[in-house]
């Protein structure tokens, strides 16, 4: 006996809206239009604290957290706190023991893609592996360089007592 046809409308849209540049599909036209702005390079949303600009208001809102130091999301395994939920979720994989990212040169495995990317630097020749590629984040106050932006931000707060984004970002 065939299944009865439901008179309820499907919760899934029958029509998708596609970005004419990259082809990405969206269920809502508004989401597609917002996405489409990313291709223009336009960044109309500046941070009031450091001046960095963003193409989407939501990305500016996420960015603002670096200036407040708020870390609302905590790992339920080790207690490490994060400003963004996505970063906490990525972090949690280290507790599973899974290491899905491996170096194609030496075979060393990593739980996070970013850790693999940092590791790959050791395989570069000394001429390629210079200070700017290893430590691209520069403190404009004392001149010290850092490999990661969050380390620079911690340095600014603990050493210089600054809660503003005084950083020369990599180009």
From TrEMBL:
Gene3D superfamilies tied to this protein: Classic Zinc Finger (3.30.160.60)
Database matches in InterPro entries: C2H2-ZF_Transcription_Reg, Znf_C2H2_sf, Znf_C2H2_type
First-listed, main subcellular location of the protein, grouped into a coarse class: nucleus
SMART domains listed in its UniProt record: ZnF_C2H2
UniProt keywords, alphabetically: Metal-binding, Nucleus, Repeat, Transcription, Transcription regulation, Zinc, Zinc-finger
Keyword GTP-binding: no
GO cellular component terms, semicolon-separated: nucleus
Gene encoding the protein: LOC118766128
Start and end residues of each C2H2-type domain: 17-44, 45-72, 73-100, 101-128, 137-165
Pfam family, one: zf-C2H2
Protein name: Zinc finger protein 98-like
Compartment list: Nucleus
GO molecular function, one term: DNA-binding transcription factor activity, RNA polymerase II-specific
Cross-referenced PANTHER family: ODD-SKIPPED - RELATED, ZINC FINGER PROTEIN 208-LIKE
